[in-house]
Amino acid sequence: MQNGDASRIDVPHSFPPPGLVLPTQLIQNQIHELAKTLPPPRKQNTACDACRSRKVKCNRLPDQDKCQHCFSKNYPCTHFVQQATSEKKRNAAARRPRGISTSSSVPVCMRCGSTRVPVLTLAFFSVFSGSSPVSSGGSHSPVGENCTPPWSQSAFGAPWNSRFGGYPNITLQSNPSSLLYHLFAPPEAAPSDSLFAFGPIKSRSSAYSAWGEMATKLEDESFRIEFALDLVEVYFQIVHTRLPLLNPSQFRARLNLQAAGQRPIISNKQDELLHPALIATVLAWGAKFSEHELLVADRQRNGGQSLLAKTLIERCRELAESTKVHRILQFQHVTIALLIEPLQCQNPEAEHGFHGFWLNSGIRNLLGLQINHKSVMADIKDAETRGTMIFAWWMACLADAFSAFYYRRKPMLDDDDYDIDFYTVDPGVQESIDPGKPSPRDQLEFLGYYSTAHALARISRQIARLLWRPTTDSEGIPLDAALRYSSELTDWRDAHLSKVGVPPNLVANWDFLAAVSACASDAQYHVMWIGLFNAMDDYGIRDDCLSPSSMNQVETVKRKVFEEALNASLRVSALAGVLTSNGYLKLDPAVMHVSIIHAGYFLAHLARPEVQNCIEGLYQYSYAYEETKETAQRIKRAYETALINGPTFHEMSNAVLRPSPRAQVLKAGSPTNGNGVCRAHESMFVVT
């Protein structure tokens, strides 16, 4: 590593670091407004056949059985037939208990047909911090008239003044000051059967020693409030730019840390309650990236890692479990679940690592709320809630597809599990004059990004389902599937990569947000080739024909996938080098790490010197995600082994040992720029 010490982590004493420009509060608000601009689904067309064929508006006449057009022309009218059919479909959909998945049995309320979600598995994103109670009144309501709509405040499933087992002092009405007291309680003060300390403690000073010499300041309430506000600001500067599902101004207003006693009675949207688990999750995110002097001292005491940050992660998870976030249908629960998943350790082999629990919980909540139904989405009257839910749906949809491919698991969602889709914004709309709102141009770019990401996610979902099947493990990947997936990835690259990936030369005015977003999109595509190569290397390719032509196809697709995987690994290595040199990876909320790890192992097994960028990037990543340091060390050992023994592959070894002329250009002996980046890729990245 640089300076001869790969394990050393320099901790700056100021935040943000010098030269790093982070989003202002105005930009944070614009990012959230942009996230809500995914348009709602189109409503069902109830025009009669005659009006539809002539493309005229179908207007109903009072006390008439025909529309205005058919009445004037004396045509037979089907307006009321179409309307009745649409209403029948919506009512049937509302009455029908919708299963959460094809393989699970969901208890159904015999009174109204609504569902209760059982204990489940995983989560990734955030919904509006205080969604207003919205019911879908009328005959089209998705729940019975005597039951609470799934998006109401009371859908927490328990009275606001109830107490949860194991957390007797934390309720849904606990004021933020009381919540901070328990969240920042020293670890030794907690009883053996609970994570938090409940009740007064005579002296907690010595118990704070594990968090550094400054941690005793947490005994002071004013310092706890100041510290919490700092963590909130770090969250909106770093995490919110990548996961924009909270409204920054409303969250700050509702937090109200200066309030004493019980939380106020709700009088308007600004006063709506923040879920205590949501507050805890935001604070845990802030502690992961903050360089507050207390956390700096904590890291210096504990070898570069913050024990306080890890404790807050555990406590926010425990609080979410105790308040049944993973079980009860509520908009804020979707937010909390999707925010907790990337907050945790991302090593799937770790006890508290990525097991998909919170991501799947968020998806099941979304399905239980019927967000995947176009008709239900249209019934949510509050525009902010509806926009946030649409955005949460697509983020969860993408996360489910890509994580299933990365970790070879069965995706939770199918292509036909939802009928809401992306629609374009009218480019002719004039620029917004409100500085807090995104421009139509920004909306078009935003919609374009998620449309292309969804197209790639569908390919990822198909590959993941194939790799999950036991027959693939025992018999190999079918030749036609390998050919089809390599062709689909090539088509996606030709159609979309130039729009969302890193341009040939990074422009001089690119900031933190623009750089990390483009690099993440670019790497997300390229890691698909590496994952496909690894799957073919593990399972092999099944050729049922055994003819000379099919055998030639097998060798051809192997060489193609190897070349693409090699080029993809070099690309990701170059991206990691750029982000590492700018100090951006220490501020990344678990977006780039999978691509860097896959590229690092691939290059290490080939004994390629470009692996150094991946190793250094993962060391920098360990500032917030401790597990990546150990991963970097394993990649380094694999590289050193490959230098001695040569490439180590299995089913794809013949393709690796006989590289094409294109791969020869990028061989290990190619000149580098001194940072482990092949000069063939260096010209793509010019950062000023």
Automatic annotation (TrEMBL):
Highest taxon of source: Eukaryota
GO cellular component, one term: nucleus
Keywords of this entry: Metal-binding, Nucleus
Biological processes annotated in GO: DNA-templated transcription; nitrogen catabolite activation of transcription from RNA polymerase II promoter
Gene3D superfamilies assigned: Zn(2)-C6 fungal-type DNA-binding domain
PROSITE patterns reported for this sequence: ZN2_CY6_FUNGAL_1, ZN2_CY6_FUNGAL_2
Domain Zn(2)-C6 fungal-type: 47-79
GO MF term list: DNA binding; DNA-binding transcription factor activity, RNA polymerase II-specific; zinc ion binding
CDD domains linked to this entry: fungal_TF_MHR (cd12148), GAL4 (cd00067)
InterPro entries tied to this protein: Carb_Metab_Trans_Reg, XnlR_reg_dom, Zn2-C6_fun-type_DNA-bd_sf, Zn2Cys6_DnaBD
Protein name: Zn(2)-C6 fungal-type domain-containing protein
Source organism of this protein record: Paxillus rubicundulus Ve08.2h10
